[in-house]
């Protein structure tokens, strides 16, 4: 009997969940269709106990339905990309860990991160990031990468993979064949890399080879096109089958980046899925909740939208032209690897590693008028001084930015009930219009200010730039106008645009330990 589109695709799909608890509908869908696992996001996490209960609920559903364990994946890289932050904290970024200059700190960081994930029931890290951040205007990689040089990135990727596997967490290198040489964001459009495939082989692919040699179980394909190629790598059989499988000899699971991203929307969902599998991908990653994904695929199946190699409306199995036995075997081995690590572990805490990396990586350039041991006095509520935080619109709704702000205010000596309010919208709009890439409408900046005395305006003492995306020099100067101290937590290259005479600190990531360290150092 021919399978429906959903029945054919389900064994190759990773799906999302709606909220922090499994709904009855989600339990039913996860039981009915053989999705190998789920990917978690911030919307699914409130605290460590809740996360453990959610993971256990997933295990109960999978054991009852298929006598197996689910793959429970998470983008928990560090800094702003720390979706499990409310449960296990936001670790330092890979860039901060690399800047610390000691590979043992990288080893301890990934060991601690893996233990925390595993203790909450998350068995698959969608990381480490193996991209070489070769373009300083890159809006999506930045501090997620270990650095801008292949020679630095490759050994640290190997260390991160080996340590994570040792501590019982599956790994996923990303974003093959390298998302570094571009100033465009694949979430918003299809980036054409500034490098040919041959150039990628020399600079961007070696870190993936190092990760493969260290035992990486999976690799995520980027929705990026090398110079001279029309298709995103996630749909390109030459890159998956020829380079990744053939040249590098990778025998593990190939995962797409999220299929909701604009960089891969070259056709309808049915054709995108079929073309991804035909190109050599094993798992199709969806960030939307499973109910929404099921509804979309059911609608696509009912509409007769063609798949790879099909004529519109053709009868029969929607994936009949694809040979997926080898793919199914690779997915099965990944699930078995997760099941083999379903055991009790000793969890020695190493919480100090986050602070050690912050202390070793934060850069402070003091202005000429700053005292030897401090650049700014404690902000005195009675005096009404202001601290302003800038980030992309929506970031202040997420845990890493919220926690960074709270820790920074506390370390600056501001009372616990510090009042934060949005800056005037007209100033926000004016600054957003000066963003270089991507287009202003896609990277609208928001500003939040601490000021106990709204009227008259209090003196501005310190500005924090949490934005990950690049800014034009005039925009940086505008955002920092009037501040004696500027803390750059997101895009590190902004520090060269801060006017002379200011005290400048760069944390190389938005995470708690960096906020605490840099603000105490500035005081």
Structure description:
With 523 residues, the protein is α/β, with parallel strands linked by helices. It contains 18 helices and 17 strands. It has helices at residues 5-9, 24-32, 48-66, 85-88, 94-99, 103-119, 150-166, 197-203, 206-213, 237-247, 269-279, 290-303, 325-340, 352-361, 399-411, 425-432, 473-480, 512-522, and strands at 13-16, 37-40, 71-74, 76-78, 81-82, 124-125, 172-176, 218-221, 253-256, 284-289, 363-365, 386-392, 420-422, 445-450, 460-465, 485-488, 503-506. The chain has a seven-stranded mixed β-sheet, with helices on both faces. The protein has a five-stranded parallel β-sheet with strand order 6-3-2-1-10. Residues 308-315, 371-375 and 423-444 have low confidence and may be disordered.
Key traits:
523 residues
Which sheet architecture does the biggest sheet show? 7 strands, mixed
SS content category: alpha/beta
Cross-sheet strand order for the largest sheet: 11-17-16-15-12-14-13
Count up the helices: 18
Could you tell me the number of beta strands? 17
Describe the structure in brief.
With 523 residues, the protein is of the alpha/beta class. It has helices spanning 5-9, 24-32, 48-66, 85-88, 94-99, 103-119, 150-166, 197-203, 206-213, 237-247, 269-279, 290-303, 325-340, 352-361, 399-411, 425-432, 473-480, 512-522, and strands at 13-16, 37-40, 71-74, 76-78, 81-82, 124-125, 172-176, 218-221, 253-256, 284-289, 363-365, 386-392, 420-422, 445-450, 460-465, 485-488, 503-506.
Write the layout of secondary structure elements.
Blueprint (H helix, E strand, L loop, with lengths): L4 H5 L3 E4 L7 H9 L4 E4 L7 H19 L4 E4 L1 E3 L2 E2 L2 H4 L5 H6 L3 H17 L4 E2 L24 H17 L5 E5 L20 H7 L2 H8 L4 E4 L15 H11 L5 E4 L12 H11 L4 E6 H14 L21 H16 L11 H10 L1 E3 L20 E7 L6 H13 L8 E3 L2 H8 L12 E6 L9 E6 L7 H8 L4 E4 L14 E4 L5 H11 L1
Parallel strand pairs: 1-2, 1-10, 2-3, 3-6, 7-8, 8-9, 12-15, 15-16, 16-17
Antiparallel strand pairs: 4-5, 11-17, 12-14, 13-14
């Amino acid at each position: 009997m021919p399978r429906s589109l959903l029945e054919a695709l389900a064994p190759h799909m990773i799906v999302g969940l709606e909220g922090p608890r499994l709904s009855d509908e989600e339990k039913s869908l996860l039981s009915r269709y053989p999705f190998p696992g789920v990917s978690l996001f911030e919307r699914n996490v409130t605290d460590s106990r809740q996360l453990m209960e959610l993971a256990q609920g997933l295990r109960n559903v999978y054991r009852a339905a298929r006598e197996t364990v689910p793959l429970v994946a998470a983008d928990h890289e560090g800094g702003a990309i720390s979706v499990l932050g409310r449960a296990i904290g936001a670790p330092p970024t890979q860039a901060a860990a690399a800047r610390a200059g000691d590979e043992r700190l990288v080893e301890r960081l990934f060991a601690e991160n893996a233990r925390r994930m595993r203790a909450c029931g998350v068995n698959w890290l969608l990381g480490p990031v193996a991209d070489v951040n070769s373009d300083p205007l890159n809006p999506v990689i930045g501090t997620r990468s270990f650095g801008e040089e292949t020679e630095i990135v490759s050994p640290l990727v190997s260390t991160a993979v080996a340590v994570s596997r040792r501590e019982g967490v599956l790994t996923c290198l990303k974003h093959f064949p390298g998302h570094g040489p571009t100033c465009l964001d694949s979430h918003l459009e299809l980036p054409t890399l500034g490098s040919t495939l041959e150039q990628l082989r020399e600079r961007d692919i070696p870190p993936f080879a190092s990760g493969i040699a260290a035992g990486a179980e999976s690799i995520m394909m980027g929705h990026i096109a090398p110079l001279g190629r029309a298709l995103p790598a996630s749909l390109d059989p030459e890159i998956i089958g020829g380079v990744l499988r053939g040249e590098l000899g990778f025998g593990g699971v190939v995962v797409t980046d999220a299929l909701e991203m604009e960089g891969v929307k070259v056709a309808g969902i049915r054709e995108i899925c079929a073309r991804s599998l035909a190109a050599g991908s094993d798992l199709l990653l969806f960030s939307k909740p499973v109910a929404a994904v099921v509804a979309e695929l059911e609608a696509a199946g009912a509409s007769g939208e063609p798949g790879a190699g099909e004529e519109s409306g053709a009868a029969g199995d929607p994936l009949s032209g694809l040979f997926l036995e080898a793919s199914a075997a690779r997915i099965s081995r990944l699930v078995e690897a997760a099941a083999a690590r379903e055991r009790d572990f000793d969890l020695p805490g190493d919480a100090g590693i986050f602070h050690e990396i912050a202390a070793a990586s934060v850069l402070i350039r003091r202005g000429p008028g700053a005292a030897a041991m401090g650049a700014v006095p404690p902000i005195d509520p009675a005096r009404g001084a202001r601290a302003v935080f800038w980030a992309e619109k929506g970031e202040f709704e997420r845990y890493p930015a919220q926690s960074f702000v709270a820790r920074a205010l506390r370390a600056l000596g501001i009372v616990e009930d510090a009042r934060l309010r949005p800056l005037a919208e007209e100033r926000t709009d004016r600054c957003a219009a000066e963003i270089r890439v991507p287009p202003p409408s896609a990277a609208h900046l928001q500003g939040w200010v601490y000021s106990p005395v709204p009227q008259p305006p209090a003196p501005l003492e310190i500005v924090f730039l949490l934005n990950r995306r690049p800014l034009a020099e005039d925009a940086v100067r505008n955002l920092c106008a009037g501040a004696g101290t500027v803390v750059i937590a997101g895009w590190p290259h902004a520090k060269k645009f801060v006017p002379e005479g200011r005290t400048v600190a760069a944390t190389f990531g938005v995470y708690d330990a960096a906020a605490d360290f840099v603000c105490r150092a500035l005081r």
